[in-house]
Amino acid sequence: MKKLKLIQQIHEAGVVAVLRADSPAEVVAMAQKAIEGGIKVIEITMTVPFALEAITELSKKYSSADPAADNYAIIGAGTVLDPETARATILAGAEFVVSPGLHRETIILCNRYRVPIMPGAVTVSDITAALELGVDVLKLFPGNLYSPSVIPSLRGPLPQANIMPTGGVNLDNLGEWIKAGAFAVGIGSDLTKDAVKTGDFSLITDKARAYIEAFQQTKQN
C-alpha cells in the first residue's frame, strides 16, 4: 500500500524538484529552500558527489507519512543507472527512484522492494516494455525535445501510461503539460540557476512558490 500511496502523493503534488549540485551540503540547502516554497517532492540526482549523504540527511529530516505535517516531503533519487545504485539509494532513505533510461534489472530491483521506479522512456516500444515490467510512472526525458502534445499522442494507443516530462518544463509551459495529461512535471535547472548564479538560495523558495501556484491554478481551471 505504501508504494501506491507514494505514487498518488507525487501525482497530487504535481511538481518534482530535480536537484543537482557540487556537494551534498549545497543540494541539501537547495532541497530545503524548495520545500519551504511548497515543492514537496525532491529528487536528488546521483551526479551529486556523495549524494547518498544528502539523501540520508533529508530523509531523516522529512517524512512522507503525513501531508499535513510541517516536515512533510518525499525524498527520492535520480539519475540511477543500475540496480546496485538503486539499492544503495533505497538503503539511504530514498522513497522513489528515477532513471534517465529503461534498465530492466533496475526496475526489477525496485519492484522487489516495492519502491516506485520512474524510468526514462520516449517511444511506444519503451513505454510498452516498461509497462510490462510493472512500471507505474514513466519519465519523458528530455522533455525539451517535445511539445506537450506528445502526451496525448502517446496515450492514444497507451492510455494506461502515466507520463512525467522532465527537462525543459518551465513556468511558461507548465500549464500546457498538465493540461495535456502529464502525471506530474520535473523541474530542473530553471528552479535553481538564478540562486546558483547569485548565491542567494532564497530565490529557490520564490521560484518554487511560483511553480506551485502555476500548478494549482492549472488544476483549478
TrEMBL record:
Keywords: Carbohydrate metabolism, Lyase. It comes from the Bacteria. The keyword Hydrolase does not apply. Pathway: Carbohydrate acid metabolism. SUPFAM superfamilies: Aldolase (SSF51569). InterPro entries: Aldlse_KDPG_KHG, Aldolase_TIM. It is an enzyme of class 4 (lyase). Its EC number is 4.1.2.14, 4.1.3.16. Pfam families: Aldolase (PF01081). GO terms for molecular function: (R,S)-4-hydroxy-2-oxoglutarate aldolase activity; 2-dehydro-3-deoxy-phosphogluconate aldolase activity. CDD domains: KDPG_aldolase. Belongs to the KHG/KDPG aldolase family. PANTHER family: 2-DEHYDRO-3-DEOXY-6-PHOSPHOGALACTONATE ALDOLASE-RELATED, 2-KETO-3-DEOXY-6-PHOSPHOGLUCONATE ALDOLASE. Homotrimer. This is Bifunctional 2-keto-4-hydroxyglutarate aldolase/2-keto-3-deoxy-6-phosphogluconate aldolase. It comes from Paenibacillus lemnae.
